[in-house]
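Lab notebook, design round three. We kept the backbone fixed and only want residue identities now. Task for the bench partner: fill in a sequence for the structure below.
Input structure tokens:
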């Protein structure tokens, strides 16, 4: 079983359609739930990724599955020279994100739009010094195609930086992690978001998505090079880095 075969609601509709619906449903509660469920660690994970991207001194970043804009805003604040184009399936998430971008006074540097990274707008192709994805690739209907599209969005030499939740391999940590993700997260998610499936889908998609070397193989298969991964917080999160050849 792969992340592409795990659907939020049913098997009668496309994954893309269901992911869009799910995020529209949970958009108002998304940020609050993220902070609570990760104990605020999602911010530190993003900071580590931002520091890696900043080392390449990009001018334009495309943030895929941008959601409510957290990563786009962190990238723009950390790198004053950067403009960010954010793309997300969900109109509800984009609306929340645009309000946050305006509150941060960054509308002149961050542009968020509704769109599918598997069929990106033509103006984004070959336009990025860096492409970023935070906690989004497990929602792709076709992960290999997603990586090929992101490769094509990059300029030669550009960096791809992916942050994704992952399953810890430690025999000490793994049982506690499984209990938390299979029991606590769904209960909390249903109580706050009122979507009965969204936060059951979350641990299922984490368990099914490619991890470690398997994820790097997908990146390499899309033509990316110098791929590596960095586990964080006992392996519950992983940063993946790769580059489009020069």
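Proposed sequence:
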């Amino acid at each position: 079983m792969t992340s592409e075969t795990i659907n939020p609601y049913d098997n009668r509709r496309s994954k893309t359609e269901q992911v869009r619906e799910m995020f529209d449903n949970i958009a108002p509660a998304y940020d609050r739930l993220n902070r609570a469920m990760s104990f605020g660690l999602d911010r530190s994970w993003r900071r580590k990724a931002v520091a890696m991207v900043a080392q390449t001194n990009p001018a334009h970043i495309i943030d895929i599955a941008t959601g409510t804009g957290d990563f786009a805003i962190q990238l723009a604040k950390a790198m004053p020279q950067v403009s960010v184009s954010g793309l997300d399936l969900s109109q509800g998430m984009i609306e929340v994100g645009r309000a946050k971008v305006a509150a941060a006074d960054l509308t002149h540097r961050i542009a968020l739009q509704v769109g599918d990274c598997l069929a990106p707008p033509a103006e984004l192709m070959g336009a990025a010094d860096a492409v970023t994805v935070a906690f989004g690739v497990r929602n792709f209907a076709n992960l290999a195609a997603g990586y090929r599209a992101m490769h094509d969005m990059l300029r030669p030499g550009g960096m791809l930086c992916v942050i994704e939740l992952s399953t810890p391999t430690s025999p000490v940590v793994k049982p506690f992690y499984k209990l938390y993700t299979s029991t606590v997260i769904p209960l909390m998610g249903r109580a706050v978001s009122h979507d009965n499936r969204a936060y059951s889908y979350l641990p299922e998609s984490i368990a099914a998505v490619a991890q470690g070397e398997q994820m790097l193989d997908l990146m390499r298969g899309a033509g990316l090079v110098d791929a590596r991964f960095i586990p964080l917080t006992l392996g519950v999160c992983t940063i993946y880095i790769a580059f489009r050849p020069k």
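Keep this in mind before ordering anything: The CA atoms of residues 7 and 13 lie 9 Å apart.
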